[in-house]
Specification:
- It is built from eleven helices and no strands.
- It is mostly helical.
- The protein has one domain (about 1-235): MetI-like (MetI-like fold), CATH 1.10.3720.10.
- The chain starts with a helix and ends with a helix.
- The mean pLDDT is about 85.
Amino acid sequence: MDDLLKGLLGALRLLVSADPQVWGIIGTSLRVSLTALGLGALLGIPAGAWLGLRVKRPRWALALLYTAMGVPPVVLGLLVYVFISRSGILGSLGLPFIPRLFTVEAMIVAQALRALPLVTTLTMSAVMGVDAGLKQQVLALGATRLQLAAVVLREARTGVVVALVGGFAALISEVGAVMLVGGNVAGQTRVLTTAIVLETGQGNFDRALALGFVLLTLAFVGNLLLTRLQAVSAHG
């Protein structure tokens, strides 16, 4: 109980302090999670809408999607590591747009791949839940498939926001993939989850708990904002 209280008080001190190291870690955490979520949504929402609107959904696509959702983050990080390392399939090509290991960009790629199947699946479920009569009515009025998708996504917007909430929660709390491809480099690729692992390994339990409470606070505030967006979309 004393450790928890010290951790909570330590978290408050970290949040109100001007410690550049702590706020740098928080900033990196938000940058990685939000950018990866944005990339996952950019690809996942259209993919989910396409799957949700199809009468006969390709079995290979669904199998690939569900398999991707079940891949452990550490395995996903290992796959990204193998592909973009200097001797890897993509890293060996020397292309300028391939991120290097132990950079924020590599962490974003791994996290975006983590968010993509989750956002796609939840968007597909939301689109499938839209009244079939509405879809038929829109098509009967001469709408194109693209216009149909826009109308259906508007109706399913609450479910899409749920997909974003779930994606953010998964990304902000993930440690395995970002540890592998980011390397937990101080001042560069260290995020809250990897900092907690480091502090715990060094026996600094008070600081680890404090960072844990900071992470919980960050996740709560982020999800609160997204939930507010969900409420607005439900009444919009």
